[in-house]
Each structure stands twice: as C-alpha cells, then as structure tokens.
Amino acid sequence: MENKTLYISYMGLTEPLLHSQVLNYLKILRQSGISVCILSYEKRRLFKKHNVEIIKEDLNKAGIKWISLGYHKRFQFLAKPYDIIRGMFVALYISIAGRVDVIHARGTFCALIGILPCLILKKKMVFDMRGLMAEEYVDAGLWKKNSMAYKIVDRLEQYFIRRADEVIVLTGNARELILSKGRTKNITLIPACTDLNRFRLKDVDNGFKSGYSLDKKFILIYTGSLGTWYMLSEMLDFYKELLRVDNSSAFFILSQTSKAWIEQYIPDNIKKNVIVDSSSPENVVDFLNLADVGIFFIKSCFSKRASCPTKFGEYLACGLPVVINKGIGDTEEIVRKNRVGVVVEDFSAQEYRKKIEELKELLKEGDALRRRCRDVAERHFSLAQGGKKYVEVYKRLKAKA
C-alpha cells in the first residue's frame, strides 16, 4: 500500500520558485509510488486562468492532486491567523477524506496548519524547514527579540523540531544548530537544488547577445528579486570598482522587482553600464550563459546560517564563478573549498579591489574553471539527488508504520 502525503505550502504553485523546484521534488516522490496532494496558498494577482490551466495539466499528467486556498495580505494581523485557521480545518478534512499518512509542512506556518491532523489523527510529520523563521523576522527588523510574536514562533519552531518524525534543513550550519539544541536523529540536509538539465552550459545565439549591446563585454550578472535581504547598493559599489579595472564591463540585473525601484539606486556615473531587465523563468538560463561571473550579497545575520540561495546553484550549473559575501549558509565553505569564486569579507572599496584581483587570477583558468563550477553544482545541488533524499525520508517513515 502506497504512502499518501499532504504537502502544505504557504507559497503558491503560481510562483516560479515553488513551481520549478518543489514541484519537481514532488514528481520524483510520485514516481517512487507515493501519493501526493498539494495544499497551497495562491496570490490573486498570479492566479491567472492560463497559468492555472497549464499547472493543472502538468499536475494531472504527474498524478498529483492540488487544492488551493487564497493568500491574504491586507490587514496582516487578521489575514495570517485567518489563513492558518482555515488551512488547519482544510488539512484535517483532506487527511480524513484522502486517508493521508504523512503531513509534509514547508516551513513553520505550514507546520502549524498541519499540526491538527498530526495530533488528532496521529499522522506522521515531515518538518521541511526553509530557515529560522523567528530569527529572520528579527533580523529583518520586523520583530524585536523580546516581542511576544518572536517568543511564540520560536517556541513553535522548537516544538515542531521535537515533534516531527523527520526534519529537513537547507544547510549544514542549520543542521549543526539543531543538533546543538538536542535533536540527534532523522535530520536530512537537502539544499535548494537546481534542475541541471535546464540550467547548463550552452551556446547563446549571437543575436540575443547583441540585442543588449553586450558583444565583447565582460558581464557581471545578478538574477532574482531584490529588497529586504539582498544588498543592491553594495553590489553596485562592487561593480563600480570592477568598472575602474575594466571599463568595457557591464552589470546585468535580471529581476522581477520593479525596474524603477532598482534604477533609483544606480549612481548616474555608471547607469549606462548597468542593464536592468526582467525575464520569464524559461529564459534565465540564456542570460546566465551570456555572463562571465554571477554575484549576490546578502545581509549576514544569525538567521542566514540556514539560508541556501537558489541562484547559487543556478550560477554554478551554468559554469559561472561567483562573487559572494561571507556568513550565508554553506556558500562560503563551498566557494573556498572548491575555488569557484571569491568571498568578500567586508563591504569596503579596498576589499572589493582585492577580490577583483583574486577573481582576475581565477578567471585565467578559463574553461577549466567553468567545468569546475558545473561539477560543484552536480555534486551539491542536483535536483535528482535532492529528490532521492526525499524518497529516502519517506522510506524511513513507511518503515516506522
């Protein structure tokens, strides 16, 4: 008899990250004989009919069921409790009607949504931590460390870690932190993986490159959203120093974040060298293959010990060495150990110049460096390997039944 799981996500399937990454994991689970039902919260602006029909068709082919609820943001102090309470009873109903065996919760809020069937119906729980939520809210300046909200969420996180039959983390740093708090078994490390069949080294049409006036230019690229954690001003400062060394270089920012919002941070003296654009998820790989180096700077704080930026694996999979700052999950260790980029120690012009010189030496390795980046992606961020680890988690759960 096959295992049946209810996968709960507070992020919607209409959002690119969940659709491209999580859905692939769930397809691998389904192929291994596990029945999957997804309960997700969808934002109204993204829940467009043509997107939904494509997603439904894809899920039907994979044999995955999907139940969606509306995501509410207005009147936040009421919206979140409403979403959670409503989700609790929907999850309980699905668990009874669908004879679910496992509640798979993506993050703390989802664990709270799924705890009702776990307690009432004695269902097993997979707590798929996406980070240290309580600490993230503090580090983002949204909560105080001594606030009631922080204390409640922190205690809930610790409870779910103890209560869950399996805990999944994104980084070795997060795993060590959980071990230090007393849990010693069934902690699985599965980083934010990359579809290596899609993100790969490939030739890009010359017309595509010339359309952006990038012929014969050294290209630094950033992909993904901006704001809160990602340090746009510091990345632009790094590029200013790079431009002094190579005045033919360009900085390509590929983001769904408002172009006007991004451009207000770009100094006038480098604006002509900075290209800001957006792209469909399908075309990101083409833009990455235009570039020479990928960059991301993230605020280094306690909560980021548990962070694994998706773009890290995508850059490496496309053969791009990286420029990063220290203190973000396992990224620093991977870069230093495998020599696939440089790690900025502080955000000073002097440090930037030093790292640019190191980067120039590294880039002299040419194709050998690109192949090494790809190899690191295959060893650390393979979607297929991540899927296998999920299957192993479910095999352990079935053995306990």
How would you characterize this protein structure?
Strands 3-2-1-4-5-6-7 form a seven-stranded parallel β-sheet, with helices on both faces. The protein has 16 helices and 13 strands. The protein has helices at 16-31, 49-62, 76-97, 108-120, 133-139, 148-163, 172-180, 206-210, 232-245, 259-263, 284-288, 310-317, 331-338, 349-363, 367-380, 383-400, and strands spanning 4-9, 35-42, 65-70, 102-106, 124-128, 166-169, 187-189, 219-223, 250-254, 274-277, 293-296, 322-325, 341-344. The chain is of the alpha/beta class. 47% of the residues lie in helices and 16% in strands.
Q: Characterize the biggest β-sheet.
A: 7 strands, parallel
Low-pLDDT ranges: none
Based on CA inertia axes, which overall geometry fits?
A: globular
Percent strand equals 15-25%
Encode the helix/strand succession as letters. Answer: EHEHEHEHEHHEHEHEHEHEHEHEHEHHH
Helical/strand content category: alpha/beta
Report the helical percentage: 40-55%
Overall pLDDT metric: 90
User: Strand sequence of the main sheet, in spatial order?
Assistant: 3-2-1-4-5-6-7
Structural Rg: 22 Å
Number of helices: 16
